[in-house]
Amino acid sequence: MINRIEAKAGRKVIFFPNWVETSVFFPVADKTGLKEKWGFNQDQFVCLYSGSIGEKQGLENIIDAAEILKDNTRIQFIICGTGPYKSKLEYMVSAKKLKNITFLPLQDKEYFNDFLNMADLHLIIQKAYMGDLVMPSKLQAILSIGGVSLITAEKGTSLDELVEKFDVGFIVPPDDYIKLAESILKISSVDSTDKKANSRKYALQYLNIDNVMNKFVDDLSGI
Questions:
Q1: What is the pLDDT of residues 151-180, one digit of tens each?
Q2: Strand runs (DSSP E) across 68-126, as ranges?
Q3: Fewest 10 Å CB contacts: which of 35, 36, 79, 170?
């Protein structure tokens, strides 16, 4: 978006990003028992979508992917949040008789860091046309807790470039639930320790409020 604005305006545009409270959202060192708090077994691989539930996200792709993976009882899905599309998704899950998807309400702030840390994989699902408009706000908290994300984005978009450059997750094409299912299955059997460390490192360096404000001041002084 910045590149497009600069091309039209003919002058430099400063990026002033949202920040994340890295002291509030942080990796939990001992995750023993976290999954059990939300009704899962420690050996299950939990894929979490947490955020607004609307049509623009394309969350039906999660349900279609879950249907493909329904016989793999180790892989479980959570859709957490509220929104006008939730009832339709719940109907889809019921109609398909899927047992590997759990719907949860918004979580209390005091438990949210543990909730995010409980997940093995964070799903950032959006339709193709959304991929280069804005960084999803949920990604900042995920990065801060050292989470690993599977993000739907086109090649060459800002999200794709971020994941590729800093190695903080995985990319899958938007609106392709077959690729989504294949990626989840593959990720469930690989070691993502390095990506988790990279995510936290990125948040501390680029999303911490002190660093964001210092860079903003430097950018202003350079105009």
A1: 999 988 888 999 999 999 999 999 999 999
A2: 75-80, 101-104, 121-124
A3: 36
Residues of the chain by 3-state class (helix, strand, coil), percent to 5: 45, 15, 40
Provide φ and ψ at 24, rounded to 5°. -95, -40
Q: Which two tokens stand for residue 69?
A: 């993976």
- Tell me how far apart the alpha carbons of residues 138 and 163 are, in angstroms, rounded to a whole number: 15
Range of the domain at 159: 45-202
Does residue 76 fall inside a structural domain?
yes
- Torsions phi, psi for 220 (to 5 deg): -65, -40
Question: How many domains in the chain?
Answer: 1
Side-chain-side CA neighbours of residue 63 (13 Å): 19
Contact 132, 157 (CB under 8 A): yes
Q: Are 124 and 152 in contact (CB under 8 A)?
A: yes
